[in-house]
Design goal:
Structural class of chain B: alpha+beta
Oligomer: heterodimer
Shape of chain A: elongated
Structural class of chain A: alpha+beta
Helix content of chain B: 55-70%
CATH superfamily of chain B: Winged helix-like DNA-binding domain superfamily/Winged helix DNA-binding domain
Distance between the termini of chain A: 57 Å
Helix content of chain A: 40-55%
Number of strands of chain B: 2
Radius of gyration of chain A: 37 Å
Number of helices of chain A: 27
Strand order of the largest sheet of chain B: 1-2
CATH topology of chain B: Arc Repressor Mutant, subunit A
Number of domains of chain B: 1
Chain lengths: 901, 112
């Protein structure tokens, strides 16, 4: 114990002790000198002999310091100081290395955060490994009827272990006197929370007793996020009422803070019992199989032919296999659906899709499947970039160490141990990589949401942040990188001897260059690939932004609304819509107004199976998208009428049913024949309710600005009997300038209607392509970075070559070689590297789109112009990277070099 | 003298010599210790006189010697080292150990 105390005391007295020992050694040498003088030597000679007898003062001092307790700590601090000093002396070099490392580390961290969040984070429930989601053949969530869920709940195997839920629904919320706001609700069964074994942060969670149609006092559980964001975490919320679509619902609890949703990327503000779906007039997505009218909302909880619930089960070891229990419970729903179908092929087709239980510890995510490939590919790509970055940085450090070899040689000659120099090189690598890690961490904070927005837009909110373990592994990565960075220079330092350095510098040109060159070629290839992808994406985007959409861009404002959800009774909806149209048409500058059921670029669409009547028609294999509109819609949007007429005011419910086809559909079904006057229906047999085609309109990209024009049938809202959800207003001039005025006036005119997403078509296109733009920016950024890195790589390798061969070069110059010849030789080396890299990159860029499209929709294709540009960029980077070493080689002064030796 | 004639030191042997010197001569400064070892060994031991300083630091760290400032024979301030009780005990053990090893090595060499 006292030994330890002494050591600690000594540690604090270190400086004093070091000074004391220096003084002692000085005294020692002085005593030796005086002894020599007494023996009759002159003073300089006596001093020389004293030094000889004493030995190397520097190394003795170093050894002595090492012997002074805990030397590692002290010399570590010393090494760090030295490393800092030497890095600060070359700010541009150090800064660019740190930047390169930061980009590499930041990108890796972001990608890894996303991959972890998307693929590996389990739900915050006990034993998440027991969870099973029921998926269909396309790996999407299977939809079940409410009776199927009840049969599951009643089964002996799964009692109390079934969580059933709808998709998340948009409702209208009013709190007290506050204005209406949107509210996302998920309808769940009573045992939802208890099956998942979740706990409440406040109050209680839902129980099976709450899930009762005749419950006198409907209840809901709100999410922690909503509670914090909207109510500031006010505990008084428990027991208060929320008015959802005009229905009062009591808040009984707040879910746990870490639980956002069972569907990754789709987090509701509240969970509401299933039985309330009709009371609050929500319209969850559902598949309905019915040959008569669809069952009313109130019947959804009873009938077996409306499929609207997803399930997440807990499968326990020892219980009957859940798959079997599930299939047994599902069979009656299948039978009910098949009984509603006439066509035998339809029946076979329908029965083919069976629910399959899949282990889902992380809940369900619609993006996960596609993300798995993208995320893993990106991880690999970024990993490769980081690896190459490290190799590159190491080459640069090595080059610099070589440039300093004379200084190092002098330090060696003065008695610094080679290990000490090696340690200094390692320390520089560490300081650089830690700097890179810190900058990379900051970069990752900024980059992660950006990447998430691009790769998994719908999951952005539910992704976990950058967690401590990740930061720790980041630190580990940085240390490993640092050691790797410092390794080559350290090796070089440890193998230096004063003589080799001071006498000749050519001794170190070794075979390690071969690996370096392969790395540079791979790096160039990667940069060519990334640049090709970036240019190709940018060109696609440009094409999309400038291509003909089929409707006006500048002069149309659209907004979306839902009269039912706004709490307007069905019988008053038509009058409200009329008033709305009149209010819009009366605004100054407004040219026309139109309603549509879905609208353009709205994200929603409906489609149905259509049977075109008559001979010689080419029946579409899939269902056809339908849109119902009023008489003003086509002209407001600027959808051009090609033949016949559009929908008119007279196309009312009691009049003959008419429809307008898009050109693509008309061509697909009727070829060059005239479709006007032809008929179609929604059943296989022609009847008097069939629809007559009265016109053809120009094609338009209504769902997505990228897709091919959609084959589409336009019908009258009044005849199709659907409610309008989109209001389009055409103004004279630029709509963006008047959008706010229009929004305010319309909202003031109809305060009861909740409008959302006011935007001009141009703005909608911007939103629609924001991910594409992010993708272009991202790949362009990575491409530029990779090209820069590749250029630096060439610079590093050839710089090393020139530095280690400068003696040969000097000799060649001395015996009369032209400097131009030397210069050309180096540039040629760079060009060869560039050619090899560009060739490999060309191969990647040509093959990758085809290879990727084998597993996913990428929208990438082989774009030869982009590839050519990328190849030129890669070659240019290589040649530019070679120019500086080439100049340096040509400027070698033989006299100076040879004299120095 | 030819450096090859100097004795290659086993690690720790120098420490033993320093302890023995201090035990027999009392407090000495670094120069004095080096000089004494050279005299006794006939200049065969110390390649560099400086090497005793790391040895002194090591011994002091172990608590086997202690040091204090004093005045040298030519009136300079100098650090004087002296052996501690723990150092004497250590020296006794080391000497015994050394003799055992030396006897063993001699026996083997004599036998060969």
């Amino acid at each position: 114990m006292s030994r330890l105390a002494q050591k600690i005391r000594h540690l604090f007295q270190r400086r004093a002790r070091v000074r004391r020992l220096e003084e002692e050694m000085q005294t020692h040498i002085d005593l030796l000198t005086e002894e020599g003088v007494r023996q009759g030597l002159d003073r300089p000679e006596a001093r020389r002999r004293a030094h000889l007898a004493f030995g190397n003062v520097l190394s003795t001092r170093e050894e002595t310091e090492d012997a002074l307790g805990w030397p590692a700590l002290e010399s570590l601090a010393h090494d760090v100081r030295i490393a800092f000093r030497s890095l600060v002396r070359r700010p541009a070099f150090s800064f660019s290395l740190i930047l390169i490392l930061a980009l590499g580390i930041g990108a890796t961290t972001s990608i890894f955060t996303l991959v972890r969040g998307m693929l590996w984070t389990p739900l915050p429930v006990p034993a998440p490994q027991e969870l099973r989601a029921a998926l269909n053949n396309e790996q999407r969530q299977f939809r079940f009827s409410a009776p199927t869920v009840r049969r599951l709940e009643a089964s002996t195997g799964l009692r109390g272990r079934v969580a059933a839920y709808t998709d998340v629904n948009r409702l209208i919320l009013r709190r007290g006197d506050a204005s209406a706001e949107t509210f996302m609700a998920q309808f769940v069964n009573g045992a939802f929370f208890s099956s998942l074994q979740l706990s409440a942060a406040q109050g209680r969670l839902l129980t099976p007793a709450d899930d009762n149609e005749n419950h006198p006092n409907p209840v809901a559980v709100i999410s922690w996020t909503w509670w914090q964001r909207k109510l500031g975490g006010d505990p008084a919320i428990i027991g208060q009422t929320l008015r959802l679509n005009g229905v009062d619902v009591t808040v009984v609890g707040v879910a746990a803070a870490n639980f956002a949703s069972v569907m990754i990327g789709d987090a509701p503000d509240a969970w509401v019992p299933l039985s309330l779906v009709a009371t609050v007039r929500a319209q969850p997505s559902a598949s309905i199989v019915s040959r008569k009218d669809s069952p009313g909302l109130a019947d959804w909880v009873r009938v077996d032919n409306v499929f609207w619930l997803h399930v997440l089960l807990r499968e326990r070891a020892g219980a009957p296999a859940a798959q079997g229990v599930l299939e047994a419970a599902w069979q009656p729903q299948l039978d009910a659906a098949l009984a509603e179908m006439d066509d035998a092929t339809d029946r076979t087709e329908f029965a083919r899709d069976r629910p399959r239980l899949v282990p889902s510890p992380g809940g369900y995510s619609s993006t996960r499947k596609s993300f798995r490939t993208v995320g893993l590919t990106l991880s690999l790509l970024v990993g490769a970039v980081v690896l190459v970055t490290a190799a590159n940085s190491s080459t640069l450090l090595l080059l610099r160490q070589l440039a300093r070899s004379r200084e190092l040689g002098v330090r060696l000659a003065l008695g610094a141990g080679p290990w000490r120099l090696a340690r200094a090189a390692l320390m520089e690598g560490l300081v650089l990589s830690l700097g890179g890690a810190v900058a990379g961490g900051v970069l990752a904070l900024w980059l992660t949401p950006l990447l998430a927005g691009w790769l998994v837009p719908d999951a952005v909110d539910s992704l976990p942040g950058i967690d401590p373990t990740l930061l720790l592994s980041l630190g580990g990565l940085a240390v490993a990188l640092g050691l790797a960075l410092g390794a080559a220079p350290a090796w070089l330092s440890a193998h230096l001897s004063p003589q080799t350095i001071i006498q000749q510098r050519g001794a170190m040109a070794g075979g390690s260059l071969r690996l370096g060159r392969i790395l540079i070629v791979v790096q160039l290839a990667l940069s060519v690939l990334l640049v090709a992808v970036a240019v190709s994406l940018a060109r696609d985007l440009r094409h999309v932004l400038h291509s003909e959409l089929g409707y006006s861009r500048q002069s149309v404002v659209t907004t979306f609304f839902d009269l039912s959800a706004s709490g307007i009774a069905p019988e008053r909806q038509e009058a409200t819509a009329r008033r709305l149209r009149a209010a819009a048409a009366a605004l100054p500058g407004v040219q026309s107004v139109g309603f549509a059921q879905a609208g353009v670029l709205s994200g929603s669409s409906t489609s149905s199976g259509i049977y075109f009547r008559g001979e010689g028609v080419n029946q579409p294999k899939d269902s056809v998208q339908t849109e119902s509109i009023d008489e003003g819609y086509l002209s407001t949007l600027g959808l051009g009428l090609l033949r016949g007429r559009g929908i008119s005011m007279d196309d009312r419910a009691n009049r003959p049913r008419v429809a307008v086809l898009s050109q693509a559909l008309a061509k697909q079904v009727y070829g060059s024949a005239d479709p006007i006057g032809r008929r179609f229906g929604f059943g296989p047999i022609a009847d008097q309710d069939d629809w007559e085609i009265v016109g053809v309109v120009a094609d338009a990209r209504v769902n997505d600005v990228r897709e091919a024009p959609t084959p589409l049938i336009y019908m009258s809202l009044l005849q199709w009997q659907s409610a309008p959800h989109c209001l389009a207003i055409r103004v004279a001039g630029d709509a963006a300038a008047v959008r706010e005025t229009i929004r305010k006036q319309i909202s003031a005119a109809e305060p009861n209607v909740m409008f959302s997403r006011w935007a001009t078509i141009e703005e909608r296109i911007d939103q629609w392509t924001s991910h594409d733009r992010a993708a272009v920016r991202l790949t362009a950024g990575f491409g530029a970075l990779a090209t820069l890195l590749a250029g630096l790589g060439v610079f590093g390798a050839l710089g090393y070559l020139v530095a280690s061969r400068s003696r040969d070069i000097a000799v060649r110059l001395a015996i009369g070689a032209e400097p131009g010849l030397i210069w050309r030789g180096i540039v040629k080396e760079a060009f060869i590297l560039g050619l090899a890299g560009a060739g490999l990159g060309l191969f990647f860029a040509a093959v990758l789109p085809r290879w990727l499209s084998a597993w996913m929709m990428t929208g990438l294709h082989t774009d030869w112009l982009a590839i050519t540009l990328a190849v030129i960029a890669g070659l240019a980077a290589a040649v530019l990277g070679g120019l500086i070493p080439a100049r340096r080689a040509a400027k070698v002064d033989p006299l100076k070099l040879l004299r120095a030796e | 003298m030819n450096p090859a004639d100097r004795i290659e030191f086993l690690q720790g042997t120098l420490d033993l010599l320093v302890l023995q010197t201090l035990a027999s001569l009392g407090a000495l400064h670094g120069f004095g210790i080096a000089r004494r070892i050279e005299q006794v060994s006939g200049d065969t031991v110390l390649v560099n006189q400086g090497t005793i300083y790391p040895a002194l630091v090591r011994l002091e760290e172990q608590g086997w010697i202690s040091s204090e400032w004093g005045v040298s024979e030519n009136n300079r301030r100098a650090r004087f080292y002296s052996i501690t009780a723990a150092g004497r005990k250590q020296l006794k053990g080391e000497i015994a150990n050394w003799q055992r090893v030396a006897a063993l090595v001699n026996a083997v060499l004599a036998g060969a």
